[in-house]
Amino acid sequence: MPHAIPEGALLRRADLLEWFAAHRRELPWRADRDPYRVWISEAMLQQTRVEAARDHFERFVRALPTVRDLAAASEDEVLALWSGLGYYSRARKLREAAQVIVCEHGGAFPRELASALALPGVGPYTAGAVLSIAHGEPVPLVDGNVERVLCRWFGWTGNPKQGALKRALWDAAARLVEGLPDPGAWNQAVMELGALVCTPRTPRCDDCPLAPDCVARATGRTAELPELPRRREAILVELEIALCRKPGAWLLERRPAGGRMAGLHEFPTRELAVREGEERLYPARFASSTLRVEGEVGAVRHTITHHKIEARALTADAGPLEPDGPLRWVPDAELESLGLTGMTRKVLRADFARALC
């Protein structure tokens, strides 16, 4: 069998659990095992660093402390609380799933795997995290940290994101979580090891409780495993952002209801020339033809997935606005209640924007 778990792996679990008990990070979502808090944290942690998720998590659960609060919240309120984390479809799916949980499950995150997977936005990873950590069910999970730990520990080659190796990793994770008194602790322990010790670069093998059995360490292949596909080349995006200010308010534009960053608010933005074959992130023109650019006041850099954005901030005069158009004056006091794009928040924090207030 090409991806059999090596003999002794099950015996090594006690060592990793002991390591986790001694080295686990104190994170706000680990204060208890409330399914709602576990679910929100895991949704935030997908494609987001722990440091970035920490403050957002505390703000989110303070504003919406229960699943019923989330289900009753408006989309704008949820997007505002999520603003800065990116991948805003996750926030919309959270709200949709909360409504299903309230309507169909009595306000409790379901304990059955099939019911959890039926929730909007809940895949095998999120279901495994909530069911194992909050409910103590022996359900596996696999994320990037788990992929790295298992591929190195067992010396498995191939692309962990697809095909036979992907299936083998989930099968191994299921086998390893079986029969443990605390499946959630095991799942967290593997992820924690990947985050703190078995890191993508310069892993600290001397501190690893799995080191005695690690095939990658024994064969000098820690730098080679896992065999991830090459990252897509970064695409440079050049933008111009119009900063229109009147006493106590900014001119903002709401993005369309569909597509990237749907429904979020941002400064009027236009994209300069794009490379042939590349899609535009922003329109070629400002939404209003009455905007008159006055001068450049600064620049910001931002990243969205594989796009590297360089944006010039320009002061502008708005002129008359269409009553039902996408642009409107937003009072400063309302900014925190709106879903703003990450770049918009970055601009608002910049010295040149604060100087215009």
Describe the structure.
The protein has 357 residues and is of the alpha+beta class. It folds into two domains: 9-141 and 166-183, Endonuclease III, domain 1, CATH 1.10.340; 235-356, Nucleoside Triphosphate Pyrophosphohydrolase, CATH 3.90.79. Helices cover 40% and strands 14% of the residues. The chain is built from 14 helices and eight strands. The protein has helices spanning 9-23, 35-45, 50-63, 67-72, 75-82, 89-104, 113-117, 124-133, 144-154, 163-177, 183-196, 215-219, 342-349, 351-356; strands at residues 235-243, 245-246, 249-254, 265-266, 269-271, 292-304, 307-317, 327-331. The strands form two sheets. The protein has a four-stranded mixed beta sheet with strand order 5-1-7-6, with helices on one face. Strands 2, 3, 4 and 8 form a four-stranded antiparallel beta sheet that branches. A hairpin with a 2-residue loop joins strand 6 and strand 7. Helix 1 crosses helix 11 and helix 2 (35-45) crosses helix 3 (50-63). The mean pLDDT is 92.
